[in-house]
Amino acid sequence: MRKKTILAAAILTIMSGAILCGCGAGSGVNDQSAAQQTEEAQTEEAGQGEEAQAEEIQTEEIQAEEVSSESQQEKQSDDEKQDAEDADQEDEVEVEATADSENLDAQADGDDAYRDYEEPFGEEIEVDGATRRKMNIFLSNFSEAGLNAYDKDNRDLKDILWWAHIWTKINKWKSIEYEDVPGEGTCEKNSFENINKTLDKYLGFTISDDDVAHLNQPDENYWFFCKDGNLYSPAADGESYTLLSIVSDVEDLGENKLKLYFTVYSQDLDAYFDGKDKDEYYGLSADEASSNKELEQYEVGYAVVVSDGSSYKLEHLEIK
């Protein structure tokens, strides 16, 4: 009985060990499987990390390309702006060069007078001081009274009459009368006799009543009218007539015709109202006039005149 009991216990012990061994083996297999799964998860995470890193690098490359593209566009825009500015500067330089060229064409010998490059041309001649003074006085009769253009074959009667009237006010002011005219108020009255003396002396022609019959009413440009052998203009006072002309060059055109180039100067206004006579300026040469501090260059021009040896008659005049 005891032996059977011992045998049974031994069998139980063996079976228990076997069971324990089986449980240990199963646990080892499970541990190995878990480790393998962990490694696979880690590998998968590493793969996902690499993919994310690759995506990040790709994103950075795209952003860099966009920045580079924007920089290129900005550079191109800056280049286009610079090209436009350069083109504008070139245009300005061309305009300035053209203006300088035109100014050079309009003037000769530095401060010398305007030269007309259209015909007629003549041979340049020298004149003495007395002759130059006479020429200066002759031309000043036109510039001081505001006649800037004239052609004997195409003359404007209104321009000429107005010039003759102003010339009388400046040089023969005692010949001007004053009269109250109905509807016009107080007017200056200048007779055709006075006007014809001036026209004949400087232009070589006279006018008649018939010539001015259509000028019996003032217009918007000239506030004068002609009536009963007189020119009437609204009375005015306080005007300043400061302009005078100085000849710079003379050309002989033949047939007693001369072409005179000159500069128009304006006398200092204070000196003018102080009563300083222009007579002292008429003897100046072109160089002396240009350096005179009491004279300011105003305009330039040329005139074609006929000379009889002692006086001149105007045929053509341009002042610019």
Account of the 3D structure:
The protein has helices at 2-106, 129-143, 157-171, 192-202, 269-273, 279-282, 286-290, and strands at 123-125, 149-151, 177-181, 185-191, 225-227, 230-234, 243-254, 257-267, 295-307, 312-319. It has 320 residues and is α+β, with helices and mostly antiparallel strands. It folds into two domains: 1-106; 123-319, Nuclear Transport Factor 2, Chain: A (Roll), CATH 3.10.450. The strands form two sheets. The protein has a six-stranded antiparallel sheet. Strands 3-4-6-5 form a four-stranded antiparallel sheet.
CATH architecture term of the largest domain: Roll
Strand adjacency order, main sheet:
1-7-8-9-10-2
| Tally of separate domains | 2
Rg for CA atoms: 54 Å
Q: What structural category characterises the helix and strand content?
A: alpha+beta
Q: What does the oligomeric state look like here?
A: single chain
SSE sequence, one letter per element = HEHEHEEHEEEEHHHEE
| N-to-C CA distance | 159 Å
Q: State the helical fraction.
A: 40-55%
- Beta-strand segment tally: 10
Q: Please tell me the overall pLDDT.
A: 77
The number of distinct helices, counting runs of at least 4 residues, comes to 7
CATH topology of the largest domain: Nuclear Transport Factor 2, Chain: A
